[in-house]
Structures are given as C-alpha cells and as structure tokens.
Amino acid sequence: QVQLVESGGGSVQDGGSLRLSCAASGLSSYVMGWFRQAPGKEREFVAAISWRTTSTYYAEFVKGRFTISRDKSKNTVYLQMNSLKPEDKAVYHCAATGICPTTTPASYHSWGQGTQVTVSS
C-alpha cells in the first residue's frame, strides 16, 4: 500500500518560491507525479520523476521554473517552485503510478490529499 502526504504549501507574492514535499511510504518501482487543480478547473499534470532512475518530466508551462526531485533515503519527493505566478494558484497533489511515465491523472493509483498554493499579484 502506498501512502502519500503533502506539505509545504502556502501564500507567496508574484515571483516568490515554495518547496512542496511529499512523504511517501510503501513505494517500490514507481513514477511519482505532481498535479494541480484550481477551482473550476480539471486536474493538471505538473511534473513527474522516476523513483528509481530520477528521470524527470515537466509540463511545458513550468519548465525553467519548477524542479522535481526525490530523496530516496528520506522517502520524499519534492517540487521546488520558483518564479511563481498568480496562475499557479491551485491545490497541488502528489501521486504515484507504475514504471511507465504518464501525464494522465487516471493512470495514477495513489494520491495525497493535497496542499494549497496561493500566489498574489
């Protein structure tokens, strides 16, 4: 069983930074992803990382601003978010899937409860 708990969300000004953390248990050979969902919007892929190889994948709109990483010894995946914009405001969720990377929410079998990110102009 996989359990995921996000933390690190908060409120920052336009251009600010946050680092989200996802504490995981029960992981094996999975790809870990970050998704976000704003009010009235569909859940949206942000970034993913292979737990075993650290290969990374990013949505185009966050390339150059966000960095996904993992610390295997701490069973934690991170999302470093720099140059935040008001449109980045959303609840950010950590999720786990199998070996093959995917951007589709339905392909992820385990989800955390999410952490709120707010960016003011």
Layout: helices, strands, pairs:
Elements: E1 3-7, E2 10-13, E3 18-25, E4 31-37, E5 44-50, E6 56-58, E7 66-71, E8 76-81, E9 90-97, E10 110-111, E11 115-120
Parallel strand pairs: 2-11
Antiparallel strand pairs: 1-3, 3-8, 4-5, 4-9, 5-6, 7-8, 9-10, 9-11
Secondary-structure element order, N to C: EEEEEEEEEEE
What integer value in Å does the Rg equal?
13 Å
Indicate the low-confidence ranges by residue numbers.
none
Q: Largest beta sheet, briefly?
A: 7 strands, mixed
Beta-strand content = over 45%
Count of helical segments?
0
Derived structural class: mainly beta
Gross geometry: globular
Q: In whole angstroms, how far apart are the ends?
A: 41 Å
Helix percentage range: under 10%
Query: Average pLDDT across residues?
Result: 94
